[in-house]
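Lecture 7 notes: from sequence to structure.

We start with a single chain of 287 residues. Read the sequence below before looking at the structure.
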Amino acid sequence: MWSTFFVTDEEGRTVGPPAPGAVIGPAPGGAPQGPVGLTNLMSGRSTFGGNKRRRTASAGHTMSEAQEGKIKLAFFVAIVGVVLTVLGVGTEFWVELAPPKSFYNNQTCLTAHYGLWKGCTKTLWVADIDPERESCGPAELPGESNCTYFKFFTTGENAVMFQKTTQKNLNVAAAMLAMFSLFLMVMGAICITMSLSKEILFFLKPASVCFILSGILVLLCLVVFHQSVLALLASNHTVPLHHELSWSVSCIGCAGAVLIIGGILFVLLALPYSPWQRCLPQKDSSS
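Now the structure, written as tokens:
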């Protein structure tokens, strides 16, 4: 009995002795016959797939380990911006409003602080306030607090604090800008996750756009909110108020800057070349 062993190479082509009676090479009509024709057909399919994979790798659509590490580092920067945004949007320490601590001629004074979604009033003891401070506060001091959610998004009513009325249009606009920026952050995170899982650099471009736009919207939300505070103070001058932006605004401002930086890093990583490698040789040659 005869035993024939077939060995396939890297591209799937069969390498080995032909079967007894098999015709090596094409038939007179030009069409392959028998096992050799089937082998060539299978090897052709494998060859096309191998060429396709090689073209994909040579075209730069896949990423190396160094590129993957850089993308993860830039993604960490963007995640820091997302966390700061969530912390700022979810808290109500955007602005503090405080009348003079001697305005009520009592042992206690009233202060208020609010954010995008709810406002709080707090009763403080005058003895606990710094003697050099003229206004009531800060809101971090211990005292009796009462918080209520704004009715901008339900009944459309304005809120009244210290006989001053809010401008719901500005407050709603600031809240919508914050929510849309969070939506863009989620879309950018999905693009980066797909880029790392599929090892495709193309998803870095839409991710960079999402993070840069989200950072711009976060900063724009901050500007609109500050305008709403100024409108609140100008609505009534019966009660003198001292206002100051609180730590939630600091989180939002830092988040906007970090998100824009993260988006710029993704833009640089999506370039087909390294800008440092192009700039540094030109400086050396000119010097």
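Helices lie at 34-58, 65-90, 168-198, 204-234, 247-270, 275-286. Keep this in mind for problem set 3.
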